[in-house]
Amino acid sequence: IKNIAVLTSGGDAPGMNAGIRAVVRTGIYHGLNVFGIRHGYDGLVSGDIISMDAKSVANIIQRGGTILKTARSEEFKTYEGRKKAYENVKSLNIDALVVIGGDGTFTGAAKFIEEFDIPIIGMPGTIDNDLAGTDFTIGYDTAINTVVDAVDKIRDTAESHDRVFIIEVMGRDSGLIALRSGISTGAEAVLIPELEVDYDAIMKRLDKSRKNKSSRIIIVAEGDKEGGLVVADKIKSNFPNYDVRVSILGHIQRGGKPSCMDRVLASRLGVGAVEGLLEGRRGEMAGLISGNVTFTPFSKAIKHINKINTDLTRIVEILSL
Ligand code: ATP
Fold it and tell me: Active site annotated at which positions (predicted)?
């Protein structure tokens, strides 16, 4: 391997820049030429590929988003698109790729390897933390800290007006953003898609907690069957005298400067990804399991597994008295 390229794909996540920097600098450290592919797989298909050096990734570790841009590429989903992508790879003598993204990105990468002879290593870049093969994904820690900051602010106003706030957070089909941010903001309840919602228990908890608290906060994961507005309606119809408000946090959760944990994670996985390629690995995602860089085949990393630890759901219940 002499020439490698890196791209970011799917939804952006804070820490992707730290990952790009780590891939570029590790490549240079090992004497490789490194290219950057802009706009995810779209740039691979159209040939939007630039040469990267140590300087091109200076002063980006602290920046949110991705300097290489990201995209959802319809063309790469077709065989013709992937064929064009491979022709671009060959014309620049690129020997291997590092792709930073989520399950769609790895599904595409697995197909690309199957059809064309190109080693690819993945790095988990998504705020949702919904991939197997890593305890945490790049961007998750920053996103939950953003949620905690926003909920703390909402708590101030909720407390001043004795309100019940329903706060909807991101996470797609995963409740992991909701669960950890719920614990750390002292939410009275957390509703996640992985668990059946026991509305009777929630109503009782709300009623009981009224004695101890003037504000109550319920965090709802966006993937929950009901969604924040429906949950609010149910509470209002059960307690007509409650002042219930809804806040949907939205894309604020995807931005901002990456946390220390995300910068370290992205740096470790970037080094791991490039060194994995040099060891002859392909078709795997570099992840961190119990503090160690670990490689998991794409087919396993993209399987939707339930990463909810029931210890955490119990904590919400115990501490919300
Ligand atoms: P996030 O979880 O943050 O949304 P993601 O990687 O899952 O990230 P997607 O938009 O699902 O985001 O996938 C990224 C890109 O991967 C797609 O735009 C597409 O180009 C490619 N891709 C996804 N699924 C396939 C597939 N079945 N075959 C080929 N390419 C695919």
Answer: 128 (proton acceptor)
Distance 73 CA to ligand 1 centre (A): 7
Question: Quick one: angle between helices 260-278 and 16-29, nearest 10?
Answer: 40
Whole-angstrom CA distances from 220 to 6, 7, 157 are: 35, 32, 19
Is 141 an annotated catalytic residue?
no
Residue nearest to atom 13 of ligand 1 (CA): 104
Among the listed residues 261, 293, 291, the one whose alpha carbon sits nearest the alpha carbon of residue 275: 293
Please tell me whether 210 is known to bind a ligand.
Answer: no
Over the chain (321 residues), the average pLDDT of each successive run of 10 is 98 98 98 98 98 97 98 97 98 98 97 97 97 97 98 96 96 96 95 92 88 91 91 95 96 98 98 98 98 98 87 88 75
For 254, half-sphere exposure in the C-beta direction (CA atoms, 13 angstrom radius) is 14
Residues 6+ away with beta carbon under 8 Å from 295: 121, 133, 272, 276, 281, 284, 285, 286, 287
Flag whether the ipTM exceeds 0.95: yes
Atom of ligand 1 nearest to the CA of 103: 7
Report d(CA 163, CA 172) in Å as an integer.
27
Is-contact 283 110, C-beta < 8 A?
yes
Q: Which tens digit of pLDDT belongs to each residue from 298-310?
A: 999 998 788 888 8
